[in-house]
Specification:
The chain is of the alpha+beta class and 370 residues long. The chain is 39% helix and 19% strand. It has helices at 12-31, 36-47, 53-63, 70-106, 125-138, 153-156, 197-205, 246-261, 320-325, 342-350, 357-360, 363-366, and strands at residues 143-144, 150-152, 189-191, 210-219, 231-241, 267-274, 277-286, 295-296, 299-300, 309-318, 334-341. Helix 1 packs parallel to helix 4 (70-106), helix 2 packs antiparallel against helix 4 and helix 5 crosses helix 10. The model has no long low-confidence stretch (mean pLDDT 92). It binds 3,4-dihydroxyphenylalanine (DAH). Residues 194, 196, 236, 274, 277, 314-316, 337-339 line the site of 3,4-dihydroxyphenylalanine. 3,4-dihydroxyphenylalanine binds at residues 194, 196, 236, 274, 277, 314-316, 337-339.
Length: 370
């Protein structure tokens, strides 16, 4: 490593030699510098104010020069300073342009490569089924209504003709909101167990004629298993007008069943009970797998359990007591209502064997609906 020599000989020839040696030492150090940290030490070593090589020139060469040689020595030292300073700057620009071009080389993009394909999302099978059901009724002139999931006892039960302590309430496995014993029963909050309370909310807001469908989420205190979920979905329907009869109920729901499951499906109605409809009926469709025969490939049909029929919804003529709660004139108006489980319809349509698959978000299940 170069160090500044003391001069004893101040002749021009000796000065030239010393200057040449310094210059070539500097040039080879500068040439060997390729990173910014190296450049910083180069700069400090040569230009450092306190003990840099240029400073040493002042002490070792200039100050100790005899009077007559000072001018000559001063000139050389200034020349050398100028060269070193310029070359230090030049070295830095060389380094940074080299590193920026290597950065550019690294960041080089091949624009002829194909892009990254992002998979398109699809509607969840439950939402799709719910929209399909709603769409069938929209096509028949129904509008869509929604209501709250946290509901009062009044809307979920009382106005639907479930009197307090009536055993029909037990079939609903209601999840209630805690800490409301101080409130009157009808004001107590619960998670709605069905979409039927929206019937009441709609009728409170508008006079007949009414034709609405109500998609939504409902809650029951059920343990999750392959066929039960504490949260599930329903689509409710309500039609109220003058002269609505059970024939309208049957015709409408038969048409809806054909639209949902195929035009060769037949329907039948079985007596049932709901507090808010009288009479009430469960609708069954002929099994679309065995076409109602109960037999498949020489054995029994598993879908309808060999009965040939599958139950898909509850329905009935709106009980006149319900009109009493919403100030509809029960002598003038009549209507029908129905409610179906969206999961149940989706399970049947898509042959799903475990209801939990709808909620687990497993792509292997969901991508089958893409
Ligand atoms: N709300 C009933 C349930 O969740 C289903 C139902 C039955 C709705 C008959 C109706 C109806 O509107 O008329 O079990």
């Amino acid at each position: 490593m170069y160090t500044v020599p003391k001069l004893d000989d101040y002749s021009p020839a000796a000065l030239n030699r010393a200057a040449r040696e310094l210059k070539s030492a500097f040039e080879s150090e500068a040439a060997a510098t390729s990173a910014e940290t190296e450049w910083k030490s180069l700069r400090d070593r040569w230009m450092g104010r306190k003990n840099g090589i240029l400073t040493q020139l002042n002490d070792l060469w200039l100050k100790s020069a005899p009077g007559p040689a000072k001018r000559e020595v001063g000139q050389r030292v200034n020349e050398l300073k100028k060269i070193v300073e310029e070359q230090i700057d030049a070295t830095l620009s060389r380094i940074s342009s080299a590193s920026s071009s290597s950065r550019l080389a690294q960041a080089r993009v091949d624009i002829t490569l194909p892009g990254t394909r992002r998979k398109l999302g699809v509607e969840h099978p439950l939402i799709r089924t719910m929209k399909e059901i709603v769409g069938v009724f929209k096509a028949m002139g129904y509008s869509v209504a929604e209501g709250p999931e946290v509901e009062t006892d009044y809307y979920n039960f009382e106005a639907l003709n479930f009197p307090p302590n009536h055993p029909a309430r037990d079939t609903q496995d209601t999840l209630i909101i805690a800490g409301q014993q101080g409130r009157p029963l009808r004001e107590r909050l619960l998670m709605r167990t069905h979409t039927s309370p929206v019937q009441i909310r709609v009728m409170e807001k508008q006079p007949p004629p009414v034709r609405v469908v109500v998609p939504g989420k409902v809650h029951r205190a059920d343990t999750a298993d392959a066929t039960h979920s504490p949260i599930f979905h329903q689509v409710e329907g309500l039609a109220v007008d003058t002269n609505i009869t059970f024939c309208d109920l049957k015709g409408t729901l038969d048409q809806a069943a054909k639209a949902m499951f195929g035009s060769s499906v037949r329907t039948r109605f079985y007596p049932s009970f709901f507090p808010f409809t009288e009479p009430s009926a469960d609708m069954q469709i002929s099994c679309f797998k065995c076409d109602g025969s109960g037999r498949l490939d020489g054995g029994r049909c598993g879908l309808c359990k060999a009965s040939g029929w599958i139950e898909i919804l509850g329905s009935g003529m709106v009980d006149p007591n319900v009109y009493g709660f919403v100030n509809y004139d029960a002598k003038k108006y009549s209507g029908f209502a129905f409610g179906m489980g969206v999961e149940r319809i989706a399970i049947l349509k898509y042959g799903v064997d475990d209801i939990q698959l709808f909620y687990q978000g497993d792509v292997r299940f969901l991508e089958q609906f893409a």
